[in-house]
Design brief:
13 strands; single chain; 4-stranded antiparallel beta sheet; alpha/beta; 7-stranded mixed beta sheet
Length: 425
């Protein structure tokens, strides 16, 4: 692509963002309660034709190919419209809707989230993001000097920094074992946690999916092992919530925090926090105001004034996920993973830096272009083809992180692979 062409492409990328997009008929609008006005119809074409229609629910900048959902997701058009309608409704009568007018809608949203994760609505708090959830856990724990918290080396900064700030000053020890980069079995990962546990261990903090290379960690197995020893387990679920079915009751962890703006396609600034009923007694609110003495999990989301249109937009997003079907989304995630890997895994120009087994990875894959610096690869993908992805340098990855959300089609993957091969050559 010439310099002039690149300039035109970059200019077009950020132009006309407010223009309406033509969407397929399946992108039904929402009413004020976040309900779909109608359901997705049975589509008579091929399976890829169906997913092309789903892609049409998402409106990106012109010529942008967005493979960066693991950083920040997009709202489908119906959720955008629904959230904006909630905002208009709030501004039409501010005091009514901020102070109780949407009480039933908020509880309906909580219930829809609880149903999605197969838990009780009394175990779900509607917070802002994963970072808040991890801070909530970190500042609540009354650990003693010499107690230990296990946080493996692949934890996100929002996973370990809250524990550094809230617990290290109390002389609590943070244990940072190293995870294998490309394990072949779950047991290889469980072994790392097993060997890190001592009689002083009080909590294990772990990602469900690490953001570095998309590796899925065996939360269920680690939770079972930890609970046998009276150890609490807190999970960063930012990358798993919405990617495939997550049954929190079966996972067995005590706490799970997730930003809904990634794979749940919800508005930015809204998140989900799960606390097992038997483990809520340890938690203290980050913010207190009137109603601080509420004994339910709602005490953890008592912000007084907050952005309720975004919260109700989460309800609309969950309804969208339910329309597609979380099982269907999960199946598609693995299908796209397999399709992407099949085109690169036997090519010596590339190294896949994400574990291959389906129990250890899904819709996040990291690939290194051998002999090329990742920042240059990322730059070329964007400048020459409008492909946005995340460069990953830690742990010797030197690879681009590819997110395979439901709006990615096999045709999109073909174009991505073609560009990667052109860069490799």
């Amino acid at each position: 692509m010439s310099k002039n062409s690149r300039r035109k492409f970059t200019k077009s990328l950020f132009a006309s963002m407010a223009l309406p997009a033509t969407l397929p008929a399946v992108a039904a609008e929402l009413d004020y309660s976040g309900r779909r006005a109608d359901s997705l119809p049975v589509f008579a074409g091929t399976e890829e034709d169906y997913w092309e229609q789903v892609k049409g629910h998402f409106r990106f900048a012109p010529d942008l190919k967005y493979f960066n959902n693991a950083s920040l997701g997009s709202c489908p058009e119906a959720v955008r419209k629904g959230t904006n309608e909630f905002r208009d409704m709030l501004d039409s009568f501010p005091s009514k809707y901020m102070w109780g007018g949407w009480r039933d809608e908020i509880e309906a949203t909580r219930q829809s989230v609880a149903d999605l994760f197969s838990v009780s609505n009394e175990e779900i708090a509607l917070i802002h993001n994963t970072t808040e959830g991890m801070n909530l856990v970190a500042q609540s724990m009354d650990f003693e000097p010499g107690d230990e918290i296990i946080l493996a080396d692949h934890e996100h900064t929002s996973g370990y920094i809250p524990f550094e700030v809230w617990q290290e000053d109390k002389k609590v020890k943070l244990v940072r074992p190293k995870l294998p980069l490309l394990p072949g079995t779950k047991e290889e990962i469980v072994k790392v946690y097993r060997e890190a546990i001592t009689p002083k261990t009080k909590m294990i903090v772990m990602c469900h999916i690490v953001n570095t290379n998309g590796m899925i960690l065996p939360v269920k197995e680690v939770s079972e092992m930890a609970h046998e020893k009276g150890i609490l387990v807190a999970v960063d679920g930012a990358q798993s919530a919405g990617m495939f079915p997550v049954n929190l009751d079966e996972l067995g962890c005590d706490y799970y925090a997730a930003s809904a703006h990634k794979w749940l396609f919800a508005p930015k600034g809204i998140g989900v926090f799960y606390a097992r009923d038997s483990s809520q007694k340890h938690l203290k609110p980050l913010i207190v105001c009137r109603g601080y003495d509420d004994k339910s999990i709602r005490r953890l989301e008592n912000y007084n004034t907050r952005n309720l249109p975004e919260l109700l937009g989460l309800g609309a997003a969950v309804k969208y996920v339910n329309e597609l079907g979380i099982e269907t989304i999960g199946k598609r995630s693995y299908e796209l993973k397999s399709y992407f890997r099949s085109q690169l895994e036997n090519d010596d120009q590339f190294k896949l830096k994400t574990p291959a087994p389906d129990e250890l990875s899904s819709a996040i894959q990291v690939v290194e272009v051998v002999g090329k610096k990742v920042l240059k690869v990322k730059e070329q993908l964007f400048e020459e083809a409008g492909i946005d992805c995340r460069p990953m340098s830690k742990f010797g990855l030197n690879g681009v992180r590819i997110s395979l959300a439901v709006y990615i089609t096999k045709k999109d993957i073909d174009e991505l692979v073609s560009q990667l091969k052109a860069i490799a050559a």
